[in-house]
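User: Run a structure prediction on this.
Assistant: Running it now.
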Amino acid sequence: MSEPRVVVLSSLFPSRTTPGAGLFVRERMFRVGRRLPLTVLSPRPWFPGQSLIRRFRPGYRPPAPHYEQQDGFDVYYPRFLSVPGILRRLDGFFMALGCARELSRLRKARGVDLIDAHFAFPDGVAARHLSRWFQIPFSVTLRGTEPGHLRQPAKRVAIERVFAEASRVFAVSASLARVAGSHGAVANRLRVVGNGVDIDRFVRLPQDRARARLGIPTGVPVIISVGGLVERKGFHRVIEQLPALLHRWPDLLYLVVGGASPEGDMSEALRAQVARLGCDASVRFCGSVAPADLHVHLSAADVFVLATRNEGWANVFLEAMACGLPVVTTDVGGNAEVVSSPELGSVVPFGDGDALRNAVAVALERSWDRDAIVTYARGNQWTERVEILVGEFRAICREAVHA
């Protein structure tokens, strides 16, 4: 039997107009693509008149090209009807309609053996429809948005159908696997496959050299957060604690690395919060940083902080650890599975500002075994994860042939 030909279905995927979207999906699946034939369908939401909204909200649903080639892989961006508001619950069905023509063309041109969707809603729902229409097995990877969607009755019904019918449900953390299992995912088709870290890209630099490149003085305490500037990531929750931290460390510097994302853009609100608290001199908004350069910012810092409201498996924790940083984060999703011991950092209750502030303070004061932190990160490389995924994709296609 020839190698399975995989179509990755993910509405969150980079393009030249949104270069920072879904990098974690591309990182994972392009590594699989070095082993198996792989094509990407990244459907983009559209409705008549949405260009008018961009006049007032420039970052709203930026247009994407129809096609790009990235690292030798074909990436297509078909559009699908998505009307804001209550009709968003139909996104899965309309996404499937929008992808059907492209999938049919790919099947005729090169063959398609498996649809691999990322996020249960709407992508997994779309994959289920396409699987039924084209008689192609599908898998779905859960990445952390699922618990919120499952609290909405209409979406919950659709997602539970995905769990019941998928040939495999991959969860990036055990906590997500438990959620899926409690909503109908079949145990023998449920797998936990976390994300990995690129140790060739995320290399720890000597701190003084990293700081010199960024113009940061030696000797000052530096904390850093990296992510989309959206409410979920919690930059504002860290900023809330700065006045008290500055009282203790007057020269403390907070590096805010990130920009707008498909979830939104809190840039102006964060800047206003910093000004209101009188912390302008202590916060540096670095903007979006290319993955190839991010290790410089991480290596310049002392502690990584992410007061996030929701996560599946945050790659950025391992990236920070690969640069020698302990991590302070919130006890949500799979965070405690990554920050799995006190030698790596601390996990605090979400919404407890005092606990967050105290954990950052302890992390700044503590003498860390940073070599041990780097060693832990290096033990979470992509190699083993990719081997598991390739094996599972092959097994799915064998099962489909036998069925």
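Residues 229 and 266 are 5 Å apart (CA to CA).
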